[in-house]
Amino acid sequence: MKNGLFPFLSTTCPTSTLFRILTATCLEIISVFRMSFRPVAAVCQVNSTPDKEVNFAACVRLVEKAKEGGANMVFLPEGFDYIGSSQKETLQLSENLTGDTISRYSDLARKLNIWLSLGGFHERGDDWEHDRRIYNTHLIINGMGHIVSVYRKCHLFDVELPEKKVSLKESAFTIPGQSLSPPVQTPIGKVGLGICYDLRFPELSVALLRQGAEILTYPSAFTVATGTAHWEVLLRARAVETQCFVLAAAQVGCHHAKRASYGHALAVDPWGEVLGDCGGTEVGLTLVEIDMDKLRDIRRNMPVLQHRREEKFYYSLD
């Protein structure tokens, strides 16, 4: 005689055997259910130019594609709004957070009911009318179109690599941020904010980890030279040392006659495994599931944060 609820079971099965089979079946059902509801992040790769309208249209297409693919949150790179061909143009095109560009992205997030990571945005400084300086700003916009977090890049890219033909001085027109932003709870987990060059400073990632970050994000526009040498290894290192997911949207290709970016927008899991890579040539996105069970397992089995000494210990040689 067959059981009506579980027809593959016989009513003559011993109770202990029946219990084991039912338990295993329920656990499998729960496992499948949990896997099917893992949140999805879309990590985007963009080729910005000085044309803000063209850039916005391209980013809208990526966000819509991400939504169609089931993404709960979309990550756009540094300079998603534009990449100017000169310091003068970069400053002229800048806006306030209340300007047209962010308003349009807020409308997009609300329309699609999707969270957006936008950074860095060229935000006019507090004393713009007098000093004509800007912030490099990373924003999180929720599915209702509200800005829920703002971080202003605190490590500015002032680098001269003559043998690599790299010469950039971000501090010439950019104000460094004065503080970190607390990690923000999102549909995919608790996200800690950085921007590009911040990636080279592990103190920042550890500070975000201590505040509960589960995901670190570094929207970037790495040069071809520095990207080829350091991009992936830095992202994987930040993931391994913090046991966080690391999501790094990226610029790719030639922006104008004076500048090109490395690409390879990347998603890395807390074990350092690369989950998605957009490559070095094309605009696009990678969709990745955020498996918090894996994060918890890694942190439980190797509790690195618990093993860290107090901060003063690491300065005991000073």
TrEMBL record:
GO molecular function: deaminated glutathione amidase activity
InterPro entries: C-N_Hydrolase (IPR003010), C-N_Hydrolase_sf (IPR036526), Nit1/2_C-N_Hydrolase (IPR045254), UPF0012_CS (IPR001110)
UniProt entry keywords in alphabetical sequence: Hydrolase
EC number: 3.5.1.128
Enzyme class: hydrolase
Domain CN hydrolase residue range list: 39-292
Family of this protein: Belongs to the carbon-nitrogen hydrolase superfamily. NIT1/NIT2 family.
Entry protein name: Deaminated glutathione amidase
The encoding gene: NIT1
